[in-house]
Description:
Largest sheet: 7 strands, mixed
Number of helices: 19
CATH topology: Rossmann fold
Number of domains: 1
Bound molecules: 2-acetamido-2-deoxy-beta-D-glucopyranose
Amino acid sequence: MREARTRYAHSNPTPDEIRNALWRMATEAPTNCQPATGGTWRRFLVQFRYDVRYKMVFIVTALFLVWVALQHGPRPRVLHYMWSYGDLVVLPEDEVTSQGAVCLDGSPPGYYLRRGTGKGTKNWIIYLEGGGWCWDIPDCYRRSHTEYGSSKYFKWSFGFDGFLSNSPSVNPNFYNWNMAMLKYCDGASFAGNRTDVVVHEGKQLYFRGRRVLRALLDHLMAHGLDQARRVILSGVSAGGLAVMLHADYVKTRLPAHVIYHALPDAGFFPDMRNITGHEHIRILYQRSFNMQHCAGGVDKDCIKDKSEETQWQCYMAQYAYKYVQTPMFITNSGYDYWSLWFIYHLRCHPEQCPEKRDKLEGYHKKILSITYQVRKSEKDGIFLPSCYIHSLTSFAYTWTDYVVSGTNLRDAFYKWYSGKTPAVVANYFDEPYPENPTCPWTLEFYNRVTQRLKAYDFFVDPE
Ligand SMILES: *[C@@H]1O[C@H](CO)[C@@H](O)[C@H](O)[C@H]1NC(C)=O
Ligand SMILES: *[C@@H]1O[C@H](CO)[C@@H](O)[C@H](O)[C@H]1NC(C)=O
């Protein structure tokens, strides 16, 4: 009887026996457990399963990481950010190659999608991603090896926040809409329309932003956008400019009866001299415009109005704005940090260089003067806080925290959108720096931002 039992136990040990054996392996001297356990990882798992101290270390580390995320993320709302995202869709090759609608490296373009729910299923936000521009062929070649030039590098999903958030508290008026964020992979605000292929370092480069935009819209039309009742075209930075360049064109690709508006964010990159009086940014935009043959990818009426030498202006918001017929609510900072840094070359915090305060104010006045046309418009609204910030729609804190004339962007936009505030009065202009207490102008914030700007300091000086 005893013998039989032993044999049985040998071939099929009881759970307690396994547990004890594993416990011994895991806790006894390494020479004993090494042969039985295999890799470190496996040993760790065994240890973790049976050693309460390992569990404690794990839990404490996890709590610490959550704490760090809460400290450094955009407020505790980082939690919404983690749970609200779009899934990647890359267009099938055969859908794009016949149209030549490809990213810089010739790969098919794509977008991130989150389907709407409940009452939002027939409403769409189409959001154009930002990401600067490439200014010459070597620069575009470099970009073609990144997610801003090739779908080979697109991530599987993308965090949606702010205007794209699915949280009813962050985004009460649009949280249940369909959201499609179109990936920016052409380097020219979806405006390039160059037919020939450029070869650099043995690699073929394509400048086809406008065809990419069309292919993405056609694809969405075949996947639910054709049922849309309401559409808002939005986008940030280079994508905010793209909204102004293409708003009327996008309308022509949508169902005829759709209720259509646009919300361009941070798309006014002022055509102005830098702080030492040199022409700089316009030279770069001219290069990009000519290199990518953008005359075929921007507003036709604008191009008709200009001479060949000034057509590039149709590629900058301050000149292109007046041709746009779509009702727009424009949001832009009066002290956009991207433009202060890369266009104006003002690279110090106002407290650190008080002697440059009048220069800083000069910049702000320039923004007021180029946006004066929006103030006068009978169809458009504008929200222009005096914050040291670039994008305003894409994070919960920028979407809700900055207040101008008693209203944040979220509510200002909705009052204009729903018609509660007529466009002629939907003009939220702020006092100059440093009057707005809701704006993040601390030195600590400035240092954090400029660290990032320095890391992206691409600037090829125009010779
Ligand atoms: C202004 O632009 C010129 C021309 O690109 C450049 O040489 C100069 O360094 C710029 N000024 C500053 C302060 O960066
Ligand atoms: C873009 O280029 C193609 C091919 O050259 C041309 O047929 C088309 O009309 C251009 N698009 C625009 C908007 O000019």
